[in-house]
Each structure stands twice: as structure tokens, then as C-alpha cells.
Amino acid sequence: MKRVSPQRPTLTDGPIGRQLFRLTLPMLVGILAMLGFNVVDTMFVGRLGTLPLAAMAVAFPVVMVLMSISLGIGIGTSIVVSRAIGGEHPEEVRRLTTDALSLAFLVSVLCSACGLLVLDPVIHALEGDLPTHGDTRAYLSVWLPGLAFVMLPMVGSMAIRATGDTFTPSAILLLGVLVNAMLDPLLIFGWGPCPRLEIAGAAWATVLSRAATLAAVLWLLLRRERMLTTPFVRPAVMVRSWGRLLRIAVPIALNNLITPLQIGALTRLCAVLGPAVVAGYGVGSRVESFALSGMFALQSVIGVFVGQNAGAARWGRVRGVMRACTRFGLAYGGCVFLVLLALGKPLASAFDSDTAVIGATYAYFVVAGMTFGGKAVYLSGSAGLNSLDRAGTATTVTAVHGLLIAVPAAWLGGRFWGMPGLFGGVALGNLAGGAMTELALRRVLRRHPPRPPGQEPHST
After folding, report:
1. Helix, strand counts (H, E) of the chain
2. Cα 445 from Cα 438, distance rounded (Å)
3. CA distances (Å), 334 to each of 270, 379, 426, in order?
4. Does pLDDT of 362 surpass 70?
5. How far is the first Cα of the chain from the last one, in angstroms, to the nearest whole number?
């Protein structure tokens, strides 16, 4: 693998398509590895019984909120660091990376403390009448104090990704999954000399495996990438770095929280039509997320590519990559739709043998699937807006198409046309999201007209 360093940008020259493929493929592995954390924990905790599994589901919203905050800081780090790399400012790269880790540590400590203070009332609000309080508390009482081990490696990996190296962060994630898979049975069931901790053991396995990834990330940042410097600087310098990060991180964190709100509202609308529709929507949306994982991987590397080229004022390449992503997204979404059209029913039957659930799942594939191309364009376009310092615009687009278009349209469609009309609202939201992000990107890029060939700055 080509050695990278903060002194040299790696993405400001060369074929755009080939570079995107080189960046995206390892990220696809990384995304699947992230899914592996949840799958492994769920598999082992499920052997304890229904209540511990339900307790993990109750804890999931808390985990999701804090992971959204972590991801916001991480993406903000990758964008500002990649722009500094593109502008060839190595001292700024080291300062930003170090201050991003300091910010992540401070935020993790504050979130852990606040979470533990309000833990019991939050659990009561989430679990309702379920008898899961003890198990949920046992899990979160370990997971919350270990939040720094979750947040810091995510932010550090994003800084490494900003150099154009997506292979190493994905390998680190895979390492974490393997460590987690080894620790889960030892700590949950008390194998060998380990005590039987049950659901708390799953939390300990997550924290310890993330600690292993943190050690690997810090070693790479310090020894290989040379992207760290002293954390002891004048407060004004650190606050300035934090301000640059938070201007991007806060809207992205809010953006990440809008999607669960949309899913919750749509699930509630499906419930009006019966449990089979709820189950069908649940299966369909999960299959959709897996099927679009290639777009999620591409979305995660757009910020690095656009960041380096924007930092180097290579606006022609920024336009080129966004055009390529739009075309690829439309084609990718169309292919996913055709595959689900052909294989949707046997795929749905693998999740549930109920004919009503199979029918509802297939209806989702047909109606919402027609606009997966629009959703793919939205995913790439929102990443482009974030990397161009328009994270607020991206969040606004998400809120408008997700909460103000998709949900009301699904309500009206379900009221007048039943299940197909409800899923038609989802489809309309996908189209609106793709169109809005494309228009917003064009408006932003018009402010940076491309220079004639040969006049754009080149990296040396």
C-alpha cells in the first residue's frame, strides 16, 4: 500500500473513477465490519433469552444518539484534516488531528457523566411496561463509562482516512470485530477463568475491543502518519480548532438523528395498517440498507476526496467527482431495484414465512425501490455538501425530504390508498432528497468556476 503522510495530498491528481474505487472498496469492508459488532453481540445475547435481547433493543436509542455525536465529530475531523492536507499545511494537519482527539475525549466524558446521571429515568421512558430495567441498566452502566474508547478510535480513524488511506481504518474496524467476537462468549457466559457477566459482558466486550482499536489508531497516528503534536497549547488555539470542527460536526450529528425519527414515524404509520405491514416495512428497510451499502461506502469517502481537492482549489476535480457519483448513484439504485424486483419474494420469505409479511415486503421493494436511485444521489450529494462546508444545508435537506415530505406523503398515501400509497410517500421522499441535494450542490459549486486546463494549481 502506498505510504501517505500529512505533507502530501494523494487525491488531487489521477483518474477520478479509479481513485474512488480504490477508496470505496476498503470502506465497504469497514461498513460491513461495523455491522458485525451489532450482529455478534445480538447473536450471543440472544442465547441468554428474550428479555436480555429486549434490553439491548431498549438501550439501542441511547447508543444510537451517542454514536451519532461520535460520527459527527469524526466526519468533521476527516473534512477539515483533508482540506489541510490538500492545501499542504502539515502543521495545521497535526494541530487539527490532536485537537479533534482532545474534543472527542472531552465530549465523551461529558456525555458519560450526563448519561449516568439520567440513566434510570431514560430507561423508564424507553422501556415502558417491559421488565427489562435491570438488564438495560447493567449494559449501559458499562457502555457509558467506556464511551471514550468508542469515540476516540472513530475520530482517529477518520483522521487517517483523510490522508486517502481507507484500507487501514477498515482493517482496524475488522480487528475490533474479531476481538469482540472472542470476548463475547468469555464474558457473557463465563467461559474459562472469566466470570459470567451476562448482558454486562457484552458491554465489556465492546469497550475492551474498542480499546484495542484505540491503541492501534494512536500508534498509527503517532508513529506512521506523524499526525499528532502536543495537546498543550494556548486555549485560544484549541478553541479555534474546535470551532472549525463543530461547525461541521453539529449539523452532521443532527442529520444522523433525523433518519431514526423518520423511521419511527413511518413505523407508526405502518402500525395503523396492521402488524404485517410493520414487519414488511422493517424487513424491507433493513434489506434496503444492506443493498445500498455500496453507496454508504462511497458516501464515506466523498468527504476525503472533495476535501483534499477543495483544499488544493482543484474545483474541476470536485465537479468531476460529484458528477461521477450522481451517475453512479442512479445506475446503482436502478440495479438494486431490478435485483429486488426479481428476487424480492424469496428474499422476504427468508425473514418471515407469513404470506402477508412477504407481500408487504415485496410491495416496499417495488414501490419504494423505484426511487432507490434518488436516495443514492441524496447520499452522495449530502456527503459532498458536508465536505464543502455546507453541513447545515445537508441537514436542512434531510429534514425537509425526510420529515416534511416523506412522512406527510406517506400519511396521505396510506389514508387514501393503503399500503402502496404509504410506501409511495417513501418513494416521493427519496426523489425529493436526490433532487434537492443535486440543486444545492450545483448552487454551491457555481461559486467556484473551474479554471482553464493547465491553470488549476497542482500538488508537487
Report:
1. 16, 0
2. 11
3. 25, 15, 16
4. yes
5. 20
Rounded to whole angstroms, the Cα distance separating 443 from 147 reads: 39
Amino acid at 442: R
Tracing cell 404509520 back to the chain, one arrives at: 269
How many Cβ atoms sit within 10 Å of the Cβ of residue 332?
22
SS3 category, 48: coil
The answer for 449, left when phi > 0, alpha when psi is -120 to 50, beta otherwise, is: beta
Give every CB contact of residue 158 below 8 A, 6+ residues apart in sequence.
74, 75, 77, 78, 81, 169
Confirm if 389 and 250 have CB atoms less than 8 A apart.
Answer: no
CB 381, CB 298: distance < 8 Å: no
The 3-state secondary structure of 398-424 reads HHHHHHHHHHHHHHHHHHHHHHHHHHH
Calculate mean pLDDT across residues 202-206.
93
CB 322 within 8 A of CB 96: no
Contact 303, 75 (CB under 8 A): yes
Q: CB atoms < 10 A from the CB of 145, how many? A: 17
pLDDT tens sequence across 104-129: 999 999 999 999 999 999 888 877 77
| Angle at CA of residue 296, ends 290 and 297, nearest 5° | 105
**Distance, C-alpha 161 to centroid of its chain:** 14
User: pTM of the prediction?
Assistant: 0.82
Residue length of the chain: 460
At 210, list the grid cell.
474498542
Instruction: Give me 59's grid cell.
Output: 438501550
Tell me how far the alpha carbon of residue 166 is from its chain's centroid: 15
Q: What is the pLDDT of residues 136-195, one digit of tens each?
A: 899 999 999 999 999 999 999 999 988 888 889 889 988 898 999 899 999 999 987 888
The string of pLDDT tens digits covering residues 210-242 is 999 999 999 999 989 899 988 888 889 999 999
Distance CA 168, CA 217 (A): 9
Predicted local confidence at residue 253, as pLDDT: 87
